[in-house]
Design a protein that fits this description.
By secondary structure, this protein is mainly β. It is built from two helices and 33 strands.
Length: 453
C-alpha cells in the first residue's frame, strides 16, 4: 500500500529533471555514481571531525563462500511489469540493516524502505512522489528529495542544507551539492566543509562518491547520459574531498572503462570502430602518468588476476608487454567465432568454463565479416576485473538473460551460473555475503552462498 506523504513545513521539492550521468564502470558490481557497500550512520553536528571518518571503502569483493554455489535467500515483488521507458530506472541502497529501493519513472518516484533480517525482508513504509527524482540518493538516514530530506524511520521531512535545484551526490556520510560548477561538501545539515567553483568545460558537475581512491579522491563529470552513447563526451575530473580542488583528466566518452588502482586511476578506451585498446594512467590526484597501448605482436590469452587493486606500473606492464610475472595468479582465455557472437573458454586452476554466447571476456571485431570471423581478447577489460577479492567475476548472456560466474583463478572452484536478469534491464548490489539482483520492474531477489556440504 502506498502511504500518503507526511505533512511538511518545508515547500514542495522542485520537479525532477532528466536522468543524470552514469558512466559505465567495469569494476566489481559497483557503479561510479553513488551507492557502495558501506553502512551509513547518523552523524550529528557536534565538534568538527576529520573527513576520513566520514568516508569508507566501497569496493565490493567476493569471498570463497560463493564456491559452494548460490541459493535464493528471499525475494520481494515489484509494483508492476518491467518498464518500457528508457529513462525509468531502479536503484537499491543499503543503510545498515535497511534497504531503500527507489523506482524512478518519467513523472513520479516510488520509495520503498525495507527491513532485512535472516528471515527475509519486510516493508517499513512506501511512498510515491508526484515527480521524478533527478538522482536516487540516500544521505545518512535520509532519502534526498531535492531540497528536502525524508527520514528513513519516520518519513518526516526536514530541509536539506542545499537548494532544491542542486545536483546532489551522497554517500559514505558526506554529500556534495553542486549548482552549476559551484559545489559544497556537507558532513551534516549544519557542517559545511568547503565551497568551491570548478573550472571545467562541463556546464554542471556530478561527483562520484561511490568510487574513491585513498578515501580522499573522487571522480567528477558533467550531466551527460554517457551510458547510452559512445559518441557523447564529458570532461572527467578528479576532486580532492579535503578542499574541493580538482584536476582535469580530459574528455571521455561512454565507452570508457574506469578502474581505481592502488596508486591512482586507469582510464581504458576500447575503440569499437578501430578495435583498439589503450589506457591512460593517473596518480590519485589526477596527475598524468602516461599512456599504455596494446602491443599487437603480444599474446594476451593468459591474463593476470590480483585480489587487490594493482599499481599503475603493473597495469602498464600488462597492457604494453603482456607481462604477468607480478600477478598472484593467471587465467587463460581463448575465443572462437560462433553465429553472431564470440564464445569463450576460460581455464582457471585446472578447470574449464565454457561460455558459448556473448560474454565479458571476448568481443567480435567491428570489421569482421558477416560469417563471424574475427574475435579478439580484451586486455584492458581484464585489467579492470582485478581487485574483487579471492574470486574473479565473469559474465555471459544466455537467451537474453545475464548470468554471473564467480571463479577462483588459483583453483577449479566456480560458483555456477547465477541468473541476474534480463540483459536490457538488470542491476546487482553486493553487500558482504549477499547479492541482490533486480530489474526495471523493481522485483528484488537476494542470493547467499550455499552452506558448505
Amino acid at each position: 500500500m502506498v502511504a500518503d506523504p507526511p505533512p511538511s513545513s518545508s515547500p514542495p521539492p522542485a520537479p525532477g529533471g532528466r536522468v543524470r550521468a552514469a558512466i559505465s564502470v567495469v569494476l566489481a558490481l559497483s557503479a561510479l555514481l553513488g551507492g557502495g557497500a558501506a553502512a551509513y550512520g547518523v552523524l550529528r553536528s557536534a565538534a568538527p571531525r576529520a573527513l576520513n571518518e566520514f568516508v569508507a571503502p566501497s569496493r565490493n569483493t567476493w569471498s570463497t563462500d560463493w564456491l559452494n554455489g548460490a541459493e535464493e535467500a528471499w525475494s520481494y515483488g515489484g509494483p508492476g511489469s518491467p518498464s518500457a521507458h528508457e529513462e525509468d530506472r531502479v536503484r537499491l541502497i543499503r543503510v545498515g540493516s535497511k534497504l531503500v529501493r527507489l523506482i524512478i519513472w518519467s513523472e513520479s518516484t516510488l520509495i520503498t524502505v525495507l527491513q532485512e533480517s535472516e528471515r527475509g525482508v519486510e516493508t517499513l513504509w512506501e511512498q510515491e512522489l508526484d515527480h521524478a527524482l533527478p538522482e536516487a540518493g540516500v544521505w545518512k538516514n535520509w532519502v534526498v528529495d531535492g531540497g528536502d530530506l525524508i527520514d528513513l524511520d519516520t518519513q518526516e521531512r526536514v530541509r536539506a542544507p542545499w537548494p532544491a535545484g542542486a545536483t546532489v551526490s551522497a554517500s559514505h556520510g558526506v554529500a556534495i551539492a553542486c549548482e552549476g560548477l559551484t559545489c559544497t561538501l556537507w558532513t551534516s545539515r549544519y557542517d559545511e566543509r568547503w565551497t568551491t567553483t570548478i573550472e571545467s568545460s562541463n556546464s554542471t558537475i556530478e561527483v562520484g562518491l561511490g568510487l574513491l581512491n585513498g578515501n580522499r579522491y573522487a571522480l567528477a563529470m558533467g550531466d551527460l547520459n554517457l551510458q547510452r552513447s559512445d559518441k557523447a563526451t564529458t570532461e572527467l575530473l578528479v576532486m580532492d574531498l579535503e578542499d574541493g580542488s580538482t584536476r582535469s583528466m580530459g574528455q571521455i566518452t561512454g565507452s570508457a572503462l574506469i578502474a581505481p588502482l592502488s596508486d591512482g586511476w586507469l582510464i581504458g578506451v576500447s575503440d569499437k570502430s578501430e578495435d583498439e585498446e589503450r589506457v591512460s594512467l593517473y596518480s590519485p590526484d589526477g596527475s598524468p602518468l602516461g599512456d599504455a597501448r596494446r602491443d599487437g605482436s603480444k599474446d594476451y590469452g593468459t591474463f593476470p588476476y590480483s585480489p587487490t587493486p594493482i599499481s599503475a606500473e603493473q597495469a602498464r606492464a600488462w597492457i604494453e608487454s603482456a607481462d604477468t610475472s607480478w600477478a598472484p595468479s593467471t587465467m587463460t582465455v581463448s575465443a572462437e567465432a560462433t553465429s553472431g557472437a564470440c564464445s569463450a573458454t576460460l581455464l582457471h586452476g585446472g578447470s574449464t568454463l565454457s561460455m558459448p554466447g556473448v560474454n565479458s571476456l571476448t568481443r567480435r571485431n567491428r570489421a569482421a565479416a558477416d560469417d563471424g570471423a574475427g574475435c579478439r581478447l580484451l586486455p584492458v577489460t581484464y585489467t579492470t576485473m582485478m581487485g574483487t577479492g579471492p574470486l574473479a567475476e565473469v559474465r555471459e548472456v544466455r537467451d537474453h538473460d545475464l548470468y554471473l560466474h564467480l571463479v577462483d583463478p588459483g583453483s577449479g572452484g566456480e560458483s555456477g551460473a547465477i541468473r541476474v536478469g534480463d540483459i536490457s534491464s538488470w542491476g546487482v548490489a553486493s553487500y558482504g555475503g549477499e547479492m541482490i539482483v533486480y530489474g526495471n520492474s523493481g522485483h528484488l531477489t537476494a542470493y547467499r552462498p550455499k552452506p558448505a556440504a
